Fold each of these.
Amino acid sequence: MSDGISAARYAERLLRAKAAVAEAEATAMLVGVGPELEWLTGYAAHGGERLNLLVIPAEGPLGYISPRLEAPAALAAPGFADGRLPLHVWDETDDPFLLMPPLVSPREPLRFLVSDGLRAAFVLALQTALPGSGWGLASDVLAPLRRVKDAEEIVLLRAAAQAADRAMERIISGPLVGRTEAEVARDVRDALVEEGHDTAEFAIVASGPNSASPHHEPSQRLIATGEPLLLDIGGRRAGYNSDITRTVWIAAEDGAGPEPGFREIYELTASGQAAARAAVRPGVTFEALDASAREVIAAGGYGDHFIHRLGHGLGLEVHEEPYLVAGNHEVAVAGNTFSCEPGIYLGGRYGVRIEDAMVCTAEGGESLNEAPRELRVVSGR
Ligand code: ZN
Ligand code: ZN
């Protein structure tokens, strides 16, 4: 397969997950609709009230519980190739939870690991169908596997990042001035898709004082000259996400560039971001990466204005493990992909954030994004 994850990789992931279930001394892993299911099978199943459930027992064959009307969609997914995942189909009037007990080993005591997003209603019904069982989270064993990306995944993440780079360049090129943030956010969504994403996932467009709010929702505010514009945008391509932030200054009517205060926090953010990117290598802790940017910003006097963690893992989800935050003593390994996104936010005035998607390689950190990071002054016309 030229664009996507190969069927062989899904077969390998299912085997690794099965081994991890045995290692955790659990009876089975029960995976509902969501990113864990996509990672294991390539199946982006319908969410909803009908039970879809991948059953990965420590012993015995794997199985997939599917509503009859969704069976063709399941069988078309690469993880189901070669009959690897036998379907246990239920009809509209069946109780799908009665399919469960025969699928799992009768070995006592029973303990099940459920995916993070499995509906509470499903979990409660499973607990009724499998009385006396213990329950835990599948993410405890899946997240350590998912966060080490293979070469195929890194190719896809890089392609998504480069599509986001092109979309960013188009938006920065304008027109911006005199238009609302919401209008520009619609442009962002169009540009993300036109540049190669399957879907646009988010578009933060924060102008002037709104740039001081890290998760600002694009508003009816008119973008003006002589102020900053923060753009944090991303989309999904072949399942994998992009996530990039750039902050630009829109020149004043007379062509004047940024005021000194803005330039100061921009340069400080850029220095902190560069320090963190340079610190990426196998063996470094995620809290040390956070600290490497934070120390630069604190030394410049703005530590209290860097009010969020440095970054988050990036893959099938926009936010996933690992989290780059104080207190996370886990170490980076080659194949980890995550954002590096320090910011300085001065309430009522303006803010700056610079964000790239990074991959940790055996040699060190590499940015998947290539959009320029220096302070850009644009006309916005
Ligand atoms: Zn972002
Ligand atoms: Zn991010």
Note: The mean pLDDT is 95.
Amino acid sequence: MIRVDHARVFDGERVRDGVSVLIDDGLVVAVTPTAPQDPTARPGATADGPATGMAEVAGMAEVAEVAGAVEVTEVIDGSGHTLLPGLIDGHTHVMGTLHNLRLALAFGVTTELDLFSFPPALTGWLRDTAARTDDVADLRSSGTVMCATGGHPAASMPFLPTLAGPRDAWEQVTARRKEGAHCIKMMLDDGGHHGADLPTLDGPTASAVTAAARREGLPTVAHIADAETVRAALDAEVDAFTHVPMAAPLPGDLVARTAADGRFVIPTLAMMEMSSGTRGGRGLADDDRIGAHLPADAAAAIRTGTEGLAVTVPSPDLDFAHALGTTRRLHEAGVTLVAGTDANNAPGRACPVVHGAALHRELELLVAAGLTPVEALRAATSAPARLFGLSDRGRIAPGLRADLLLVEGDPTTDITATRAIRRIWRRGVPFDREEFRTARQTPARPAPRPAVPGTSTPDTNGTGPGRRDGRATADSELTAVGSTSLAPAAARARESGRPDRLFDDPVATQVAVAAGAALAAWSGPRGERLRRAMGDYFALRTRYFDDWLLEAVGSGCRQVVVLAAGLDARAFRLDWPAPLRLFELDRADVLSFKEKIVTGRAPAPGCVRIPMAGDLRDDWPRTLRAHGFDPRVPTAWLLEGILVYLTEQEGDELLGRVGELSAPASRLALEYGSRAMFATDTTRAALDHAATTDTLHTLSALWRNESTADPVARLTGHGWAARSREITDLAARYERPVPPAFDPTVPGTARIALLQATRA
Ligand code: SAM
């Protein structure tokens, strides 16, 4: 048991002096009047560090009575310090990475409320990991945001599920609850401040969302932009709105109505300030109490960052003074305010509102808006805990989680003293801030793109346009054929957002976010024709090979090789039996793009994942062996979406090499397409009607397999006993429509073969 003596205690509601706080087994077990000093007692720990050895305990009778006869192992002298509940940030975006939750904890934020994170599997993994691991902030999330079809943010994230009308509300809210959402976030912003005019949820749909959320017991938070959207949020009877308008003061009737309706507000002043012309929070990294513990990328983000969700070019129409003034008036009207930052920095993505650190600025800004320091502290502790149903935290009281912060000085009179952190406990476990400080470093930037052997081969398998500013996005990095990996990734991201999804691919969404303009070829209007033709094909194909792979490893294959792996995330998302090695091979452009995305963001793989760069037209077996591949072990080989991009000769060489490396009982699965199978009447007609910029043209120019051989016969010739699975069977099995491009009942459509084989 740990005891903190002589500290001023802010218990989440009020200031208490002369009390000791006892912590045991992850909980606060007692808050008792401090016993008189025993002159014979050896000093225990100071606020700056733990005691060495066992402290003697004076006057423990009372404590023992309250806390039971548990031995006190450490006494911390908190003189000159203040003990607070761990801080709760009421509005963040965890951006798919645990790194942010660790950063948050390093600045005393023991719980983050994420208000939009996707895909559900990744959010769930982060939440579960944060629940288990005491060296990151705990996480609650709204999961996927509720937004209008074509609205913000779906316009730039086309794979998100959206609501076309009130009838979608029930299904979407239920889906969120099943995914583990802690609240429901809805977007009521037409993007007008950023020059857009997007659809938003209309009144009946927003009301249907709040009604459904209430039935599911989930609080609702609306993202607002201006007075009209505040009115819409109040009309929809949300529990809270987040952000405050910056174009004008919020009209008095809306301030009064917010108070009268009992709504709470998360103003996110730290973000509003950075999005406005003032950018006053830039100095945060120069406060040594913050800067000394910031990783270099986070410090640089605060000083110079304009990415993330902060507005890159502040509009002259937006005035931060309106945000402060409205916050002041809401507070004066009696509206409960919750401290939230909208932090959304992620490794390699320079947003100036940084997890953890930004909450200290938010507290300062709340005081600037007229809250007393104690009121500001409530807004970051007891208020969010109460309003978001976190009844086990947010206060210092017996039986509550020992999420605690010991700071030097008195933040109840000088709010910036929250920055002078001396101790942090999450669920009673001390966070080693010194270790964090010394280990902190900029998360690795992607290595410069290595030269790829074979790219000089004159073909369409070549290099795309590059960016010169060193910033990595798919459009700058990927070759023409490399960018075909975005098509299945975009489709997998879309599938992951469906309530009846055939799989959940957390990496695919990250890919879609990172892909930038390159994704437009697959998700934008240029790709519309292709997308419609393919229907659910990629989802069916993915699931088919998922099932096959698990069966292959279940039947004894102890290594998996995914050739032309692209942005495949099976290493991270399938439940692999241990021990299993999974080799992923693709061209260097795709590999470096992918590694940048998965590093720090993807769930830990359930296998030993060995990614490597190589060209399937070169001596890739040497590369594979050099990475530990053992040809004596039965292998499951996957060639998904590759053979059509290789000539017949290249394909035969590839299959020959796979055969040579395959021990008896090895398995092989592949998708087989050729020009003969694809270049049918319907394809030709579609190409004739499509603009030359249409993705169909880009793609058809890459098809190089001229073989007219039957695919099963071709595999038989390479020593495999193969069989083909009809796409119509798969569609029936998974209750999906037959993909229009491959519908055999429609004359002139294309064909595709999905094959599986065993080494004969
Ligand atoms: N199998 C992945 C999937 O289903 O998500 C990716 C399929 S994508 C349509 C085709 C992939 O083949 C791209 O990632 C591309 O880089 C890769 N590729 C094409 N030609 C290649 C070559 N010569 N060597 C290695 N990879 C190649």
Note: The chain has three domains: 2-79, 86-395, 511-759.
